[in-house]
Design a protein that fits this description.
By secondary structure, the protein is an all-alpha fold. Helix content is 69%, strand content 0%.
Length: 203
């Protein structure tokens, strides 16, 4: 039980490292696993949505919870998308703020953007990560594999290995984990899983 909790935490940390590394210099960082501070979230929202959700004392309810804020932000982003449905920035904001709050919305937004651009590597990786976290391992494998056909990355191999491990396909999991560079920022998260996989293969 403790091992499963540890591995789950490790997977979330890998996701965080991936997201941090894929944001380019003009994108603000955001904590994907938790929204710790409403002021920070308002500051992290990008593009036009910053103006839609300008946080000043005249428009903020002192007792507004994180959940209430995210629901309001989601509504505002969707209103903005009516005018600009293909906006990557708005889509990214919608995915980020709903990552833990409402994964269904985040997954649907990834899928919507992929319907516009099936080879969007950013959306494919977000989708694969979300599906893995929701234990939709087979769907996550499909999308991570598709992403590898577009762009090879350690994070994709980790998602594949993680999913294969949870599906009991340990030989495939081992292959994927061993493809991850030892110089990768996420390599330290691979160790516990690889040890577990190797032990299972010996039995």
């Amino acid at each position: 039980m403790r091992l499963k909790i540890f591995l789950g935490i490790g997977f979330i940390l890998v996701i965080y490292f991936f997201f941090s590394s894929t944001e380019n210099s003009q994108h603000n960082k955001i904590d994907y696993n938790h929204v710790p501070n409403l002021n920070q979230v308002y500051g992290d929202l990008e593009g036009d949505i910053k103006h839609l959700l300008a946080r000043d004392e005249d428009h903020v309810h002192p007792n507004e919870s994180e959940s209430q804020f995210i629901d309001k932000a989601t509504k505002k982003i969707k209103e903005a998308q009516l005018k600009d449905p293909s906006s990557f920035i708005l889509a990214k904001d919608l995915i980020h703020i709903n990552y833990s709050h409402n994964a269904k919305i985040a997954i649907e937004e990834c899928q919507r953007m992929l319907s516009l651009n099936p080879n969007d590597d950013f959306m494919l990786m977000h989708l694969a990560h979300l599906q893995a976290l929701k234990k939709e391992y087979k769907n996550a494998i499909i999308n991570a594999t598709k992403l590898l056909g577009i762009k090879d990355s350690d994070e994709s191999h980790y998602v594949l290995g993680y999913c294969y491990y949870h599906l009991g396909q340990n030989k495939k999991a081992k292959i994927e984990f061993e493809k991850i560079s030892k110089n990768s920022a996420i390599y330290h998260e691979v160790g516990p899983l690889l040890i577990k996989v190797n032990a299972l293969l010996k039995n």
